[in-house]
Design a protein that fits this description.
five-stranded mixed β-sheet; alpha/beta; 387 residues; globular; 13 helices
Length: 387
C-alpha cells in the first residue's frame, strides 16, 4: 500500500472576535487530505486533518518541505510491519528528516496537521474509531467513550456588554456544560458574569488570556513568563494550575485561571523542562497541550511516556483546541477531558451531529477514524478537497 497524494488547502475561519493578544478577523487554517490506494466500499481511503484555531494555516511549509519528503520516500518505508497499513511513527520521522531539534516555530503546526490526517487514515484502514485503535495499541483495549468537556468562549467582539456576556455563558449551561471559560481579561465583565445566580450555582467559571503581568496582578501575585516564576507562583498556592493557566480564588468564590501564553504548542522536550523546573504538581495541576499544534499524536505519545516517567497520569491532561482529534485521544488514552468551542470556528469546531453534552460530558459515537464523516458541514469541506 502507499500514499497516492497529499493535498492541502488554506481556508479562512475569520470571525469578528479577539482575545487579549490577537483578533481572528484574518485567521486561517490548513485542511489536509492524505489519499491512499486502499479501497473501502469502492472508494480510496482518505485521512483528513486540520490545525487548531489560534495558529494560521501552514500550507507553504507543507508544500515546500513536509509533503515532498513523504511523496519522495519509498512507499515501503512508510508502512507498518504487516505492509497493510501506514505507520504514523515512520511517517513522522520522514517528515522530520533534516530538521534540527528545537527552534520549533510554525513547523510543529504543519507536521501536526499532516499527522492528524495520517492517523485518521490508519484507523479507517483498520475499520475502527481512532479511540478504539489507540486503546488497542497503547492501552488495555477498553476506551472511555464518555469524555468531560468544557465550553470555551467569552471573546471580545463589537458590541459586547455585560448582558450579552451573561447570555453567552448561560447558553453553554443550557446546552449541558458545567464548566465554562471566559477569555476576556476585563475584571468587571467577569464580576458581572459570575454575579448571575444561575451561573454561580450551576457551573465553574474559568478566566483566560491576560496580556501582561500588570493585568494579572489583580488575580495572582504575578503572571509567569518564565519557568522559574511559574514555579514560584505554583508553590505559593494550593489551587490547581495548568500549563496554560494559573488558578486562584478571588473573593467571588469561583475558580479563575490566568493563561500562560504559547501553551498550546509544547513539544516533548519543552514539556520535560516544564515538569522538571516549572513547579507543576502531578496531584493537582493540569496540562493543556494541543497535539494538532504540537507535532501531532506521535509526539504527544512520546510526551505522555515522559510524563509517566515523572509520575504524571494522562488524566491530568485536558487538551486545548476543541476538535475531534483530541476527543479521540482522550477516550483512547485516558486523558482528563477536552476543550470545546460550541459556537466558534465552524465547521471545524464541535462534535459529530447528534452528539449532545449531558452534565458536562459527551459520549463518542462509533464512527471510523476520527469521525469527521459524522459532522455533515465539516465533511462537505473535506470531500471537496479530496474529490
Amino acid at each position: 500500500m502507499k500514499i497516492v497524494e497529499i493535498r492541502e488547502k488554506t481556508i479562512p475561519i475569520s470571525s469578528p472576535i479577539r482575545n487579549a493578544y490577537i483578533d481572528f478577523s484574518k485567521m486561517t487554517l490548513s485542511l489536509v487530505a492524505v489519499i491512499t490506494d486502499v479501497i473501502h466500499d469502492g472508494k480510496p481511503v482518505v485521512g483528513y486533518g486540520f490545525n487548531s484555531n489560534g495558529r494560521y494555516g501552514q500550507g507553504k511549509l507543507m508544500r515546500e518541505r513536509f509533503i515532498p519528503r513523504l511523496m519522495e520516500a519509498k512507499p515501503e518505508s512508510l508502512v507498518d510491519a504487516s505492509g497493510n497499513n501506514l505507520d504514523p511513527h515512520k511517517i513522522w520521522n520522514t517528515m522530520f528528516t533534516n530538521e534540527k531539534p528545537g527552534g520549533h516555530g510554525e513547523r510543529s503546526v504543519a507536521i501536526g496537521t499532516i499527522d492528524m490526517a495520517v492517523w485518521d487514515a490508519v484507523a479507517k484502514i483498520e475499520g475502527k474509531p481512532l479511540f478504539q485503535l489507540l486503546a488497542d495499541r497503547y492501552g488495555n483495549g477498553q476506551p472511555n467513550r464518555k469524555i468531560f468537556v468544557y465550553a470555551a468562549g467569552g471573546y471580545y467582539y463589537p458590541g459586547q456588554d455585560h448582558n450579552k456576556l451573561k447570555d453567552e455563558m448561560r447558553s453553554y449551561i443550557d446546552r449541558g456544560y458545567t464548566v465554562v471559560k471566559k477569555r476576556s481579561a476585563a475584571r468587571h465583565l467577569m464580576k458581572t458574569c459570575v454575579a448571575s445566580t444561575r451561573l454561580w450555582k450551576c457551573c465553574k467559571m474559568a478566566r483566560n488570556c491576560v496580556s501582561t503581568p500588570t493585568a494579572a496582578s489583580t488575580w495572582t501575585p504575578r503572571l509567569p513568563t518564565q519557568r522559574h516564576s511559574h514555579s514560584m507562583t505554583c508553590s505559593g498556592t494550593k489551587s490547581p494550575a495548568t500549563r496554560s493557566t494559573l488558578s486562584c480564588k478571588p473573593r467571588c468564590g469561583t475558580t479563575t485561571r490566568i493563561r500562560w501564553r504559547r501553551a498550546k504548542t509544547c513539544s516533548r522536550c519543552r514539556t520535560r523542562n516544564l515538569i522538571r523546573y516549572g513547579g507543576m504538581r502531578p496531584d493537582r495541576d493540569w496540562l493543556q497541550f494541543d497535539c494538532a499544534l504540537s507535532y501531532g499524536l506521535v509526539e504527544y505519545l512520546r510526551t505522555l511516556d515522559m510524563l509517566k516517567e515523572h509520575g504524571w497520569s494522562p488524566s491530568r491532561c485536558i487538551p486545548h483546541g476543541g476538535h475531534q482529534m483530541s476527543l479521540n485521544i482522550a477516550a483512547g488514552l485516558g486523558l482528563g477531558g477536552n476543550e470545546s468551542y460550541p459556537d466558534l470556528f465552524q465547521p471545524f469546531g464541535g462534535f459529530p451531529d447528534g452528539v449532545k453534552v449531558a452534565n458536562g460530558y459527551v459520549t463518542l459515537p462509533d464512527l471510523p477514524g476520527i469521525g469527521f464523516e459524522g459532522k455533515a458541514d465539516l465533511y462537505r469541506e473535506m470531500q471537496a478537497l479530496s474529490a
